[in-house]
Amino acid sequence: MSKRGRTDDDSRPPKRPKPDHVLQAVVEEIHFARQLQELLTFRQDGIQQLRGGIASFKAFLESVCYHRDEDRRSRQLAILHEFLDSEKPADANDTERPFLAQLWQAWSFASQNNNDHLCSQISALFALLVKTLSSILDFRDHGVLLCRTILQHQHLRMIRRSLDAPKHKDFLISPCLRLLTEVTSFDGGLLAKEVYKRREQTFEPMALRRNLGAFKTDQSEEEARRRPAIRTLTIRYILTHLKYLHQGGKADLLKNRPLCTSLFHFLQDDPADVIAELLSATEQHVLKDADLPRSAKAALLVEHNLERVTDIATRSSADHAAFQTAFAWLKAVCSEPSCGVLRISGWYPPGTDRFSEDTLRADAIDLGLDSVDFYDRDQKPNVRNTVLLTWIQTLRPHSNLRERELLLTCFRSAPELVAAYFAEKNMQLEPKLSNTWIGYASLLFEVVQLDLPAFLGYEDGWAQLPPQTYIMLDSILPRSLTQKVLTRCLNQSNDLIRFFAVRILVMALQKLSEVQLQLAKGSDSAVSKTELWKEASERLHEAFVERFPAMKDVVGAFRKIPNDDEHLLQQEAVTHLLRLCYEVLPLQAAAEPFDISAPLTAALVKTDPIATAEEALQSIRLEHLLQIARRSPGMRWLTKQGALEHSPLMTLLKIHAENVNDRQVRDLICGVLAEHSILSTASGLDALVAVLHHLAPVSEAVASFLDDCFSRANKQPVKYLDDMEAMVAKHADDHEGPRTLPSILPAVLGEQAAYVGNRPRKEQSEIATFIIGYFDLLRWTAEAKDGLELIRESFESLDRFQVLEELHDPKSTLLNVEISRAPIATEENVKATGPVHVLPFSAPSAESENHPELLKWSQKDLGLAIEDGDIAALMLCLSSQYPEIRSQALVQLHRVLEKVLESTLEDKMQIYFLLGELIETYEHPIETSSDATPYLVTCFATHALEIEIQPVHYLYPKINRFLNKGPAWRPSKLPTHLLKRTVLSEPEEDDSYWKEVQWVLDWLVDGTRTVDDLEILRKGKVFEQIMSLCSSPGSGARVKERVLELLWRVTFIEGGSTTLIKRTGSLSWLNMVPGEERIAGLMQGLRKRIVETCDQEEIEEWGGVSIDIM
């Protein structure tokens, strides 16, 4: 039915408008206290007069409170004091006639008759009166009396009725909230406890939560300050309680999680000053309250509240007044454990830092880390900081820098969050140059840059167990960076995407190296189960390789970058990546053939001065290339290449002559010269650098001459050694004793000096000056003096050998270019440090009582078990001192033999022959010295197994020919046979002679562990053969160190040192073998070790002289 419209008939009068019952109150000026009493007298028929009196009293209080009339203030205070004294009851506890009884009667009448405006006016008057009294010290007693009157039960019921009013009656709710706030904060919170004690009327959670939802969105900042919303007043009331309540009251208040959530729910719609007040109060009186329990603080820091504050801190405009306050609040929550939500934790989820009781049982089978039930079982770790983890998942760090800073702060404070975050975060990192991809890429780069936690995240030093592999790996190279993603990024044509991949891989490799170093420290500090830390390091290395791109892709990225100044930054980065691959992942780097000669040649050509901004990058790149070349087996140091006028070694030497303080370059040159047997002492190189530095810039004639001498020394080392030996023998004196020879380079210079006269006069003088200067400096080095003088005499008498300038002070010239090196092991510091720790070699490892390898291989795929070394470890069990271990190992090897035949391995027949011959050697020994197979035999089998799975290995043909000789091996003939096939035979490849010798030495060092092994080597005269290798001109420092390490391990075997002295003449040999300072120091340390561990009485009786004379 439609509404009836108004007719045009004017006979009916219009509807009378609704009268306005809210009449304007008349405000009178207060002159006397009696006047106030009359104005505030309550009569049911005088409501309008009462409202006028309330308005007059309110104006009077505002004048007093806000100092509006300073001239009359003293008079006003007297009037107020007189009025309040007159209203005091005789008994403060009298509920029938309370303080200011007329006003309470009026409020009660208004409440019963639903006169909301009068209720609002009276409650506002009380709020203003309490506020006024709290600001004047003389009125403290009146204020306390008034507050206690307000807290009487009948009065709180009226306040509660007003607080429960509908939300649209904000004029009724607001003054009651202000009144309770003033009462709570009166006199520094004197009555806060009393207010909270009556929380059924004053702090009812449901009413407060409803009022926290009453906010206004259409108000300006100025309007919000003048007439605050109900939510604003409720927030201030709750904050007043948090500020003044005792610890128990605050903890009880914060237990109400729904109320705490509502406190922050509409935070984005609050005025900026209210937000700042809320955050400051909660931080000061809750988060930083040391007496408040963590559980109470955590109730305030739920995920919902953190998200609301995040909206203000990161997603509001920068000119928001609470922008910085909210951000600082969040950073404090993320970084300070005292705030209540952050729990300090590293890479150890709860319960993963120690062994279980079953693992520590004496009869438990040791399976390594597989025996730890939780280790690497779950790829999603349990975390202590669940609240922070849930919150950071809502952040957008790829698009908001402030949110990224918060995320990284959480990662630094709780490193456990890194792996957990990326386990749940799905990032789209397919290489596409968009803003999203750039944001994700920069975020991941900063995550990889994070520092390692101390002790790998364990609070009290080193834990019993290492961290789990996937947790460490995700912190090194986050899970989003898969091998597929990184490979695609490296192969991109876009420079920025490729540069990102290179830089993040560089950071990851550096971090992996740091983690492995920390794992090594943890292994050294572990009380028990130290092998678990080593196994964890191996697992981490394998997992990292699986996530790391293939080496061919890294080399491809290196080759794609143009060799010009515009791409110099990218060149340095990818060269650094290659260097780290050779240092941290040497096996993977060696698997991909890569010739560094051409890039190094190009870099050496560019060593001329360039722009200042590019000079540093070019120098750093050259350093990377040199380190790669040092580790690259295919580097041709003594061959001219490309645009170089000289060989890479000579070019590098010229550069080093300009900057003689670069220790890395000096060590590199020293290693190359020693490897090619050109110089045998570091001091000889110092003399060479000194004379070139004196002649700098080095002329082309000198450089070409020295380069030619390097080439001759490398091609014909035996010829020059024979010449020096003949020269020394010809001029030998009658005195007895060993004669030492200088390095090959002085001999080559002496021979080529005879041909200097055929050059132009200027070149003659330059070269002659170089040669004479070099020999002058050699007098102050460790080179053999006899041979040097004979070589010098052979060319100084030549015609046309004129010197431009002689060195006036050779010793000072040499000292100016010397670089401090690590101390050499000499006889003096051997005495100071003791014999065991002088040499950098390890003693033979003792057999463990536990043998997890007996069963460990069966838990893996056969191919993986071979690659991981489980089958090799099983082979070694045949040499165990425990018969039961040998029996179990034999049974397991038979099972392995069956599985090999059933497998699809490409080299299964070679592996089958190897295992079968080892088993046959154990079951039907041709030579019986003990029940156990010597370690030399089982170690040979393990080393041969590594060759059988690598058909391209340089010893692959020789090992297979040996396996085809017969079904079993003769242990006593095994070392001599292999030495004959390597040391005394041609290599399978042209440049693999010393590689084969090195392999045999590695096997002998690994297999020499027991008395049986020592007897095999003694009877086969193996020591004499390998000791003669050190006298070979082609034997480098590595071969000599390996020989010394073999003798070192022999000294740990019972009777080993005595055997070395009586059967091999090792003490005399150590005095005769030449070598550079480091090798000489090692020999001195080995000599000391042999003398101290031998049977000195037996040796002196055998030799007839004191052992010191020997």
Automatic annotation (TrEMBL):
Residues 872-1069 form the URB1 C-terminal domain. This is Nucleolar pre-ribosomal-associated protein 1. Residues 632-796 form the URB1 central HEAT repeat domain. It comes from the Eukaryota. The lineage of its organism: Eukaryota, Fungi, Dikarya, Ascomycota, Pezizomycotina. GO terms for cellular component: nucleolus. Residues 100-440 form the URB1 N-terminal domain. InterPro entries: ARM-type_fold, HEAT_URB1, URB1, URB1_C, URB1_N.
